[in-house]
Specification:
With about 375 residues, the protein is an alpha/beta fold. The protein contains 15 helices and 14 strands. It binds flavin mononucleotide. The site of flavin mononucleotide has 25 residues, from α2, β13 and α15.
């Protein structure tokens, strides 16, 4: 029975070949931040008031032009096609069905155009800024044309984290070891669901830009790695602000100072995130920056957050400390790997139920009633 994220994770570990599970699961270096991201929620405990009528509850929230039925978005994750054929489409449809947001990665397997026809939910696009400004601009134009309601610029993966769990399966970049190949052969179900329908998944958004020598095999990944703009800075973000007139969020912000700079630049919000512990090991959980950041930016600036959220109670703690909504990463990847679209739908339904139940038990009828006084900090 798959009741919670522990069950999903265990099942995903069984159904995925080791190299694919490591890709989803891994963090940087010693994975201290990965562990800290999940442990940090215990620092706050609820102090629930009683005897308040919370029989009618409303979880809706609005972020820019996007009306969400609950304060959740699917986090952008690259290369989901390695988990299951059409995993991006499944995640997008399940999000639309629940009326929550879906953020498509630059390095998704499906292209922007392919996801534009999947459901009517709020669709956002996550941009990695590439060295080639024309390509970057073209990605922005494609997102506009496809009706994406917001642009999320990720700024924390300019230098890739050291993910050793991942590396153990490769002889050299992109070349799986014999052991990893033998392990794949022990997962015929995954082969049937993932590789057999259409071969190795690619990077749908990048295909139009690939030079001839990168068109074959894992060429797109090599192209992408060579194209990350390592000079990315606040001027680049100001340029992007000029190109995209809709809601703009900067993802991967971890300090109050940077949040204030994003606000001055004219961004509509930030995603406080340490990339799920996949980048700089030893970095702090964004939960520990949240209250101070909210205090610094005031009420109207949007604060989204991710990294380590596994339960509805985690989400409610973030909302009480000032977040507008939460992005979910790995739990939904486990879900799509285990049971496809139907399992993502069930996982989202469970998460929404958990948020709703927590609100009820705190005597709150809406997200606006959540506030820091409902929490006691252990530290
Ligand atoms: C397999 C995987 C791929 C990811 N790919 C991207 C990506 O392409 N762009 C991005 O901005 N973040 C990416 N992230 C980070 C997520 O958007 C998000 O910040 C993180 O997963 C949140 O932590 P959680 O997994 O603990 O929920 C990825 C994360 C994972 C696990």
């Amino acid at each position: 029975m798959m009741l919670n994220w522990h069950d999903l994770r265990q099942r995903a570990q069984r159904v995925l070949p080791a190299f694919a599970f490591s890709y989803v699961e891994g963090g940087a270096d010693d994975e201290k931040t990965l562990a800290h991201n999940m442990a940090v929620f215990d620092r706050w405990q609820f102090a629930p008031p009683v005897l308040k009528d919370s029989s009618q509850r409303d979880l809706r929230c609005t972020l820019g032009n996007s009306a969400l039925s609950a304060p959740l978005l699917v986090a952008p994750t690259g290369y989901n096609g390695m988990l299951r054929y059409q995993a991006d489409q499944m995640l997008a449809r399940a999000a639309a069905k629940h009326g929550i947001g879906h953020i498509q990665s630059t390095v998704s397997t499906a292209s922007i155009e392919q996801l534009a026809v999947e459901g009517n939910g709020p669709r956002w696009f996550q941009l990695y800024v590439l060295k080639d400004r024309d390509v970057t601009l073209n990605l922005i134009e494609r997102a506009k044309k496809a009706g994406c309601e917001a642009l999320v610029v990720s700024v924390d993966a300019v230098h890739f984290g050291n993910r050793e769990r991942d590396k153990r399966h490769y002889l050299r970049p992109m070349k799986l070891s014999l052991k990893a190949m033998a392990n794949i052969a022990c997962h015929p179900g995954w082969l049937r669901r993932t590789l057999i329908p259409h071969g190795m998944p690619g990077f749908g958004n990048l295909t139009p830009y690939l030079p001839a020598e990168y068109q074959k095999g894992m060429g797109a990944a090599a192209y992408f790695a060579s194209q990350m703009d390592q000079t990315l800075n606040w001027q680049t973000l100001a340029w992007i602000r000029q190109q995209w007139h809709g809601p703009l969020y900067i993802k991967g912000i971890m300090t109050v100072e940077d949040t204030l700079l994003a606000q001055q630049l004219g961004a509509d919000g930030v995603v406080l995130s340490n990339h799920g512990g996949r980048q700089l090991d030893g970095s702090i959980s964004p939960m520990l920056m949240l209250a101070a950041t909210r205090q610094a930016v005031g009420e109207d600036f949007t604060l989204l957050i991710d990294s380590g959220f596994r339960r509805g109670t985690d989400v409610v703690k973030a909302l009480a400390l000032g977040a507008n909504a939460v992005l979910l990463g790995r739990p939904l990847l486990y879900a799509v790997a285990c049971g496809g679209e139907a399992q993502v739908e069930r996982t989202l339904a469970t998460m929404i139920q958990e948020i709703d139940r927590t609100l009820a038990q705190l005597g709150c009828c809406s997200l606006q009633e959540l506030h820091a006084e409902l929490l006691r900090s252990r530290h």
